[in-house]
């Protein structure tokens, strides 16, 4: 079982640079992973599938609503950090 988490969203853009926002890239990655895991027949859910603001407690609540406190659940949390110039 899997859970894909996208911690940035809504008013929390995460890292921003070059016209990109971390929240948008994280959401795209999470949607792709969710779709692919479903295609493979792996029980999965996604914390959010739209650009919305979720507090940490709400994200955790959604995770537990999906699979409870099952030790076999894998949680993937997407982050794309900004880097400096090289």
What does this structure look like?
Helix content is 35%, strand content 17%. It has 86 residues and is of the alpha/beta class. It has one domain (2-77): Zn-dependent exopeptidases (Aminopeptidase), CATH 3.40.630. The strands form 2 sheets. Strands 4-1-5 form a 3-stranded parallel sheet, with helices on both faces. A hairpin with a 2-residue loop joins strand 2 and strand 3. The termini are far apart.
Q: From the alpha-carbon coordinates, what is the Rg to the nearest angstrom?
A: 14 Å
The CATH first-level class comes to: Alpha Beta
**Could you report the average pLDDT, rounded to the nearest whole number?**
80
Task: Fill in the CATH topology.
Answer: Aminopeptidase
CATH architecture: 3-Layer(aba) Sandwich
Q: What's the total count of β strands?
A: 5
Determine the structural class based on helices, strands and strand pairing: alpha/beta
CATH superfamily, please?
Answer: Zn-dependent exopeptidases
Secondary structure tally, helices: 2
The rounded distance between the terminal residues' Cα atoms is: 39 Å
Write the element-wise H/E pattern from the N-terminal end onward: EEEHEHE
Helicity range of the residues? 25-40%
| Broad shape | globular
Q: List the strand order in the largest sheet.
A: 4-1-5
> What is the total domain count?
1
Q: Provide the low-confidence segments as ranges.
A: none
Q: Largest sheet, if any?
A: 3 strands, parallel
Strand content: 15-25%
């Amino acid at each position: 079982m899997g859970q894909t988490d996208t911690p940035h969203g809504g008013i929390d853009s995460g890292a921003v640079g070059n016209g990109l926002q971390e929240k948008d890239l994280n959401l795209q990655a999470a949607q792709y992973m969710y779709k692919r895991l479903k295609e493979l027949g792996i029980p999965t859910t996604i914390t959010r599938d739209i650009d919305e603001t979720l507090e940490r407690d709400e994200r955790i609540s959604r995770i537990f609503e999906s699979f409870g406190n099952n030790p076999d659940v894998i949680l993937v949390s997407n982050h794309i950090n900004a880097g400096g110039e090289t």
